[in-house]
Amino acid sequence: MPAFIFFIKFARYCVVTMYGLDLHCSMILEEYLEKKPVFEEMKSHVLEILRDCLNKNNLLVTAIEARVKDEKSLAGKLEIKGAKYNSLSDITDILGARIITFYNDDVDKIAALIEDVFVIDWDNSVDKRKLLQLNAFGYMSLHYICRIPKSLFSDPTHPEFNECRFEIQLRSALQHVWANMDHDAGYKTGFEVPREYLRSMNRLAGLLELADDELSRLRKGFADYRRQIETLVSKGNIKDIPLNKDTFKSFLELKPFNPLLDKIASLNQAEITESSLMPYLKVLLDLGFTTLGDLSALVKNYSDDAYSLARRQLGNTDLDIISSTVALQDLCIVYILEKGGGVPELAHFFDSLGGASEGNLARAERTAQLAKTLSFMNKKK
Question: Regarding the domain with residue range 3-191, which homologous superfamily does it belong to in the CATH classification?
């Protein structure tokens, strides 16, 4: 036997004997030490598969983690219940992965993906969420015992990759908080928890479970609200829809400023470069617009005057590229002027869009001077 192999075997023997296990458990622990590099490599593949699966399905989670059980932990497990295991292959959590979701209803979504990706050992998998009594709160998690199918990944030099089982746990962030607290306060310390502390822990578990359900309910409510708003906007029922980030975004999808924008661009046959109109939301709110109906009225009532302003601005230039924000910008300018605003209000408007600068005051003065010759300013008088 080569010296290095003898040394490795002797080192494993020393590790195994230090735990004082019986012969059967010592043999399982020795097998673990021999196969530990395989589990470490499996861990990398499992993590890669899980991350790829979640990314492809646009599912965000708070954490994906994995670990290979260390020998001290395994020795402790074998000391307590080693007789129930015939060999290392009967221990299904040597490699364990965990996915922690933001919301508890995402657990079932990811569970469905895992069932499609891995080979599931249904006899040893367990949904601990279904094991709780109706009058009890506590540790909740979905546990799958899996294997990697050859169709997903295989290595002829390591057939163990497709033979070794491993565990995947799924739980929400708040379930994870409870599990860690229960683990630390419950059996990890080795002390019996006093009754008054157990009562407090159960109350807290109930609050966490309620919070978990409420977070999922709120997310569903927000999603339903967005869909409802999008439907109303798409049908033109916008009169009383509040102006906010979501509704403004939906409103912009209707391209409400494009007719005016195209008309302005035609003055010099200019090319239109796309820019986001979202920065205008704060400006519009500051100007007193509160509903999408207000924006629709802005377009309807001020487009002609905004076009007149743009024609004066571009008339003596050969500018052949304009921003897609020009139409809304000019609508806001004529709105400010027709509501009695002047240079200070225009300067504030420009500051709000691009940040405060001395140049904005000069720009406001030029714009106000230019507008004096336009018919809508004369109508004011």
Answer: Beta Polymerase, domain 2 (3.30.460.10)
Half-sphere exposure of 149 (CA within 13 A, CB side): 10
Task: Give the domain ranges of the chain.
Answer: 3-191, 245-380
| pLDDT tens string 183-206 | 665 544 455 667 776 677 777 777
Share the mean pLDDT of the chain. Answer: 85
The model's confidence at residue 278, banded by pLDDT at 50, 70 and 90, is very high
Q: Give the predicted TM-score (pTM) of the model.
A: 0.62
Q: Give 169's contacts (C-beta < 8 A, 6+ positions apart).
A: 96, 97, 98, 99, 141, 142, 143, 144
Tell me what percent of the chain is helix, strand and coil, each rounded to the nearest 5.
Answer: 60, 10, 30
Cα separation, 83 vs 77, in Å, equals 10
Cβ(175)–Cβ(164) below 8 Å: no
Look-up: residue for tokens 């002047």? 342
Q: What is the C-alpha to C-alpha distance for residues 249 and 279, in angstroms, rounded to an integer?
A: 11
- Evaluated on CA atoms 326, 331, 337, 341, the torsion sign reads negative
DSSP string for 305-335: HHHHHHHHHHHT----EEETTHHHHHHHHHH
Distance CA 56, CA 45 (A): 16
The model's pLDDT over 85-144, given as tens digits with 9 standing for 90+, comes to 999 999 999 999 999 999 888 999 999 999 999 999 999 998 877 765 544 444 567 899
